[in-house]
Structure formats: structure tokens, C-alpha cells
């Protein structure tokens, strides 16, 4: 059973694939988060501009604008409009989209797919609390 360490917090999850999107939503909901979802980077950016979440979890490889586009666009926003929102990159190809590359792009943390339930929710909680993420 997951602890409700994310009670009252809002997490925006971005993935073009419905299976991981629903998995992340379920994990985060069980941890107490209010979860908003976007199926594209552009939709996610618009959602952040409407209401800044406590964290963003984004896939990197998406058609059109990808996760790198999203983080660059977010980091260009003023802090109060989401420019410093904590962000976690989730990648299906960790060799190409390494932790170092995603952090250089602007993400705070990185996890490789498939995510482990406990590690995923703990990483999001650490991210929101401003703690250092483990190297993945």
C-alpha cells in the first residue's frame, strides 16, 4: 500500500501513450495527488499556463513537440507562471535519453521505463519537496 505522501498536491502527467499515462495517474492518485493529464507537450504547456501544478512528469519521446521541447518552453516562463515547476523526465530509451541529457535540458529528475511503483511515487514526492533525486 502506498502512503499518501502526495495528498493535496497537483501533478501534471504528459505522455502520448495511454497505457503509461493511466499507470502514472493510478500510482499518483493512490499516493494522494490530484492528477491532470496531457497527451502532448503543447497541451501540457497550455495547462501549466492556466494553472501551475506542483510537479510535471513527462515522457520524452512524443510525436511533434517532444519532452525536450516542453521543458525548454516551461523553463522560459517566469517562475510564478511555471518556469521553475519541478519536472521529472520518464524515458523508454535510457541510452539515448540519459539522466545527464534530460537534466541538462532542464528536468530535475529522470526515470527509465518501465517505472517501479514505489520508486516512481517516491521520486515525485522528493521532487516536489525539493530533495535531490537519485541518479537513474
Layout of strands and helices, then pairs:
Elements (H helix, E strand, L loop, with lengths): L9 E5 L3 H13 L3 E5 L2 H10 L4 E5 L7 H9 L11 E5 L7 H7 L3 E4 L4 H13 L7
Parallel strand pairs: 1-2, 1-3, 3-4, 4-5
Helix pairs in contact: 2-3
Description:
The radius of gyration is 13 Å and the shape is globular. α2 (41-50) packs parallel to α3. The protein has one domain: Response regulator (Rossmann fold, 3-Layer(aba) Sandwich). β3 (55-59), α3 and β4 (87-91) form a beta-alpha-beta unit. It is 38% helix and 18% strand. The chain has helices spanning 18-30, 41-50, 67-75, 99-105, 117-129, and strands spanning 10-14, 34-38, 55-59, 87-91, 109-112. A 5-stranded parallel beta sheet has the order 2-1-3-4-5, with helices on both faces. The model has no long low-confidence stretch (mean pLDDT 91). It is built from 5 helices and 5 strands; from the N terminus they run βαβαβαβαβα. With 136 residues, it is α/β, with parallel strands linked by helices.
Amino acid at each position: 500500500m502506498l502512503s499518501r505522501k502526495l495528498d493535496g498536491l497537483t501533478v501534471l502527467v504528459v505522455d502520448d501513450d495511454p497505457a503509461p499515462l493511466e499507470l502514472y495517474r493510478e500510482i499518483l492518485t493512490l499516493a494522494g495527488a490530484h492528477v491532470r493529464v496531457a497527451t502532448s507537450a503543447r497541451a501540457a504547456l497550455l495547462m501549466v499556463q492556466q494553472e501551475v501544478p506542483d510537479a510535471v512528469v513527462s515522457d520524452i519521446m512524443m510525436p511533434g513537440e517532444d519532452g525536450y521541447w516542453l521543458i525548454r518552453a516551461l523553463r522560459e516562463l517566469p517562475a510564478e507562471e511555471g518556469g521553475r515547476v519541478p519536472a521529472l523526465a520518464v524515458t523508454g530509451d535510457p541510452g539515448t535519453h540519459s539522466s545527464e541529457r534530460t537534466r541538462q535540458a532542464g528536468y530535475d529528475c529522470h526515470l527509465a521505463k518501465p517505472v517501479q511503483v514505489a520508486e516512481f511515487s517516491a521520486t515525485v514526492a522528493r521532487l516536489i519537496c525539493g530533495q535531490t533525486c537519485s541518479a537513474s
